[in-house]
Design brief:
single chain, 39% strand, seven-stranded antiparallel β-sheet, mainly beta
Amino acid sequence: MPELKRTFLKGRMNQDLDERLLPTGEYFDATNIQVSTSEGSDVGAIETVLGNTLQNTRSGGTWNTNFGLTSPVCIGTAKDNQNNKIYYFITEHSGDGSAILEYDASTAQTAVVIADVRADANQVLNFDRNHLITGINILDDMLFFTDNLNEPRKINISTFKAGSTANGPTINSTTGLFSRKDNANIPFTAEDINVIKKAPKVAAKLELSSTLIADNDFNGVGINALICAPIAITTANIDTVVTLNFKDNINSPAFFIGKTIILRAKIADDNGVRKNYIVKGIVDTASATQIGFTPSVIPQNLSSDAVNWSILVEEQDFIYKREFPRFSYRWKYEDGEYSSIAPFTEPAFIPGKYDYESINAENKSMYNHLRKITLSFPERLSTNGPPRGVEYVEVLYKTEKSNNIYIIKTAKLQTNIGIGTVDPSDPMPGNNFSGFFGSGGNIGDIVATEPNPVVTTIISGGEFTKFEITKELDGPIIESNQLLRLFDAVPKKALAQEIIANRIVYGNYTEGYDENDNPIVIENQVKSFKNFSGASSTGSADEAIGHRTIKSDKTYQLGVSFLDEFNRESPVLTNDNATVIIGQDRSHFINTIELSVKSAAPSWAKFYKYYIKDNYSQQHNLLLDRFYNAEDGNIWLSFPSAERNKVTEKDILVLKKQHGTSVPVVSDHEYKIIDISNSPPEGLRLSNLTPISSAVIVPAVSGTAIAAAGSNIVRFNGPRDNENDSFFNAVNRAAALQFVRPDITVGTSFRNDVLTFKSKIYKIKTGGSGFEGTAMGEHELYKIELEDNISSSDSWLGELRDLDSGSESAFVANTESVELILYGPEENLSLEFQGRFFVKVERNASFNVDIEVPSGQVEDNLVVLKTMPPSAVGDRVVQGGTLTNYGNQLYPSFLQSLPATPNEVRVFKKSGKWFVGDNIYSSQTIDTYTFKRTVAQMAFESAFDSSGQFNGGDADIPTNDTGWTFIYGPTDADIDEVGAIFNSIVEGTKINFYNNNKSSFSQTYTVKTLSGSTTFAAPSGSTYATKTLIFDKNFSTSDMAVTNIAGVQILDETSKDLLVRNPAIFETKAEKNIDIDIFYEASDAIEIANLDKETTLKYSNAIAFGNGVESTDIADDFNAPSYGKGVRVSSILKKAFKEETRASDLIFSGIVNSRTDVNNSNQFIIAENITKSINPRHGSIQKLFARDGELLTLCEDKCFQILADKDALFNADGSAQLTASNRVLGQVIPFAGEFGISKNPESFVSYGFRSYFTDKSRGVVLRLSRNGLTEISEQGMSDYFEDKFTSFTGSLIGSYDESMGTYNLKVGTNESISYDEGNQGWCTRLTYEPEAAISLNNVYYSFSGGQIYAHNNTTRANFYGTQGSTTVSVIFNDAPSSIKNYKTIFYEGDSGWTVDLETDKQTGVTGLTINPDLKTSNSGEFFVERENKYYNFISNDALTWTNSSQSGNLDTAEFAVQGIGNISSYSDGSTATINFANDLTFPTSLQKGDTFFYVDSSDSNKIFKLGTIASITDSTTASQLTVTKLVSDAPASGNLPNVDATDFAFFVKDPQANTSGILGYFNKATFTNTGTSKNELFAVGTEVFISS
């Protein structure tokens, strides 16, 4: 017979192909086997798998079963190959007990890392058997994990193991964690194990001082100067005692003795320039009213004027003088994590007394007058302070000029060391928070001072720590991104986790909280104060010390955010009503905002925080120098060049304070910039050209004007070179010219004449002498072309047409002559233009009130020296209508209107009163009324009679009061001052006149001559002295329109210094950026219980000085450090803030690098690009795995690789080129194939460069390798997996057995299946159901009942204490189209195997033992060993038949079934007697032991099995059988059914003893081994022949 043989060379199952087609070397099925193959040979060996052994040893004993827990299960595993350890996570069925255990393979001992068996309500670990932990990573000694139920977690393995030593033989909760807060070992809480770490919520308290002198409760230290009475100090006082008398008495005068003092004053030099002068000396004597000191430093050029000196004790220079320092702090945890930074303090800034006037526009009051900073840290461990795990506190410092944050102090928190001592383990000795958190109690104040101290640490009662900073500190710089880290956006939960690029990455995570449906309601109010320190007793803010404020002229938006206990923060919530308008009228106040929230807080919120939006552009202050009238009616403002970069054209300037006063400007204050010139505008520049020559000229042609308005041609007769060579030579090189017409009625020489008409200065384009025509006399004809046309204001030039002959003297007498002045090309730039730039603005309606009048500037180069009278007049004026009698003193204005022609004004004094007029009438009662009458006839002339007498009589008020204005007369003191003023009038003095409210001013008139008494004597009776002033020109027609004239101003040329001592300050108007929704942090995090209580914002953005000036920059300099709007920011969210599961997104942490001691695993800074999104159509992310610098990202329906720290550039053909990138997560590259991992991340496992996982939704198992995705379920088992994935609802637990090289996948109850990469197929099923499994250093471990089992037990196929069996099913299918008779079965291998046989037609022997030692058997079954093979014949299965169901393996076509005949009669009993016809001959094959059947013709020909034939009687007289009836399954009622002649009887031979093999197209042989030792199987075979 032919022999068919099967080996196990391919070592894999195949259940996809029809049995007839199964290839040789594959087998149909197997359980609990392991296969060894050898490529290129016929050798393939099967052996029974190893069993597993419980690993329940602990230090000092063994663990109780299940650790004493109720039905625990393992829900996650991780391994540490380097340390040969496995970490596994278990939880009770009820969820009341959870733990993480460590199995040390080196010692085979299990220890508790962390355990929590507290009641469910107090559970912190809170594991759940339905939330497998598939995201686990071990980094150094830290274990990170996430279960998509709780917060992502991180524990320090060593720390928690040390706190879990009180465990065994059952598990107890971890309680051995040391708490610095409680100074004891206590149970852990969520904050101990969460990745997210708590952070400080309250800013450090800031105390500032301008002095280091302890007893500073008096003036003379810091910036609170003492003021002495006026005294002159000169160099003659060097080394001599000078006595300074105080304006106010002082306290503690003895303090000053021996101290060095500094005296400061501003004194005008010989040029009128006010300069700062400093005198230094040592105090010798002191009393409450004066001190005596010896000067040691006195400037050489100090004026001898007596002045008020300010006095300060000399101290070290200010710290952070040119900075706005802010301070904060953060915590460093024991594992190296840093908390986010506490809210920053407001700037540690002390402004000085207002001092903003300098040629360089330097605001000296905006230097930091700071000498000491005291920081107090309010968060204490006993309340809300640093939680457990905080090891250090770092004090931080930053300035506004940089985003750098410096660590200026690192202090280690001490434990059980004692108050005021130094921890010897402190890595930064001398930087201790001595007893920072103490143990409470009143221990007094302890001061620990470092050598050469810059910081002093103070502990008050063991409650908190203070730091005193007296020198500028520096230190290491922390990452600038910490400014963006308002909180850590660690997900609330996440499904996937991995470490790549030294960062923790979470996928499919949940973030955010639900806000309330009701809108936020914020109530607020602005509170303004005027308590500026240092202000004078009169309330003037001239010397006010600046104060922090919220800047005016802005609209602010307020908002609130809510925080959980870990500082996770909502976006800013606000509404339209949460706006605050601080108008310009609050510029001179200290502004604060009070607010509260009247809407309910979200249920999750534990704290809240206020924010403020200031989305305005940077503003700058500009100091006004001078102003000039522009030709177009606007104004040129002159500013120091240092201010140039502060403005651009089209900016708007806002006037903050008046020019020359400390009065704030609160309305009508905006000026639009029209033009900016870095050099003097042409009109001003031309006025500074140098005159080089002049001559008197007349028209060139009689009847033709020299020049006419609207034309740029000038023609005239002028001198020849022999007459005026200077003019003749200059005209060809002159740059500009000007026409001046002398008044011939006054003098005979034009150079001495009073000039009446003066044209503008015009630039010359071309021209000169040599003009064709007839010259007058000996003179030359000239023609000049100007660059611009003659202005209409110079139309008078067109009237000079007549031409008379004569000499130069005749020119002078000629009424048509004019003087022409030539200017050279070189500009003589005046000092007032040097270092200045010019801004043209529109003339505002209040310009006169806020700039011109208070400043006293009347012309471009003039300043008001004195004003007469000085008394206020604005509120004492009655204009027109009914006159009101103010007591017995009524006086008219100085000038109601000016005369048209005379240029004389008389100033007189009568009976102690000063008046201005052209005449005085003795008949009038001077002491009661005095009226002035002009020489010209005025509109109110009718008020006087022809003699000049007042029509109303001596004592009556005029009856005709039209056009009159009266003012209240000056006081005697005013009169004396006016007298002094008039005594100072000399030739050349310039004056003008102004109306009652100084809204209108006359032109400037220059005194040419004086007549009358030059000195005013004391009044005597009705006599008075007079002084007649003759001016340079007649009063102009325009000045006659000035009404309500109330005073006279005495003017003077400007000095080289700034125009006024207290100049106007402009501010660039801020532009509001409506596209920016940045809100600045404006409060601490406040406990939610206080939500509806009034809170004052801890916010300021400027320094106010009480005079309208609000400064933000150091020295108000451009590009100088700015006060700033705040340090940390947030924003609103356009959509509602909701909890959101970002199923298709990834988020990653900061860097974790143990080599550099960096652990930023808790840092998730949402302001940075820390997220990556996958197209959501591919389903949620289920698993992350790092390999070869790529992050495998397995979604439900698609698989991707994300490049880490690199990116990809794609070529035209689709190929990619990798490129370096600073992106943590780069290009997302999909794998080919529409496969994912469904929702079974637990199926994933990786070994080497291969990864394995399932896609249950598609019924496949996948391998991801270098060649992409492969469906390994297609390798012979696709139908199997489709069926399993459809029916099995449990977890598909995947693992890799390193010792066997197989991927093991749990697919059902007590069923797993193994994929052998070496055999490229599924090698066996496994009949155990692990909760989890993992390999460690070539040993395979699985888990059951929460306990770990090592698969190294030589008791084969024994799993978790239950003995299993090993099977393999082989198909013999040669000649698959032919039915074959399988006669024998054999195998090569060890003994102990059984076999089951089955064809598509029949089944063979079940459980036939193949045993070489078995030679005989009661059944005749035996096997013979021949040539190392074990043989036996194949027999059918034992006969089976069930009467009730009419089923079994009875086959009537088999040879073993033979008929007997019809029954003739029977008798019943335990042994039935069956009779047949006497002539019936029984078949010769009928034997005792055969099975008797009959067919019941009366019951649908059903077949009934009656029993075993016991005896046979076969003779001519009787044909009878006795049958031992069945014990069970007998016919109904124990009796056979009715039998008649039609019932047919047959018998069946034993199919196992009477067989010729089994028939079929194929034969499936299932070999089984139930032994506990190793049993191998190398090959199996059968002998067959083709059935006929």
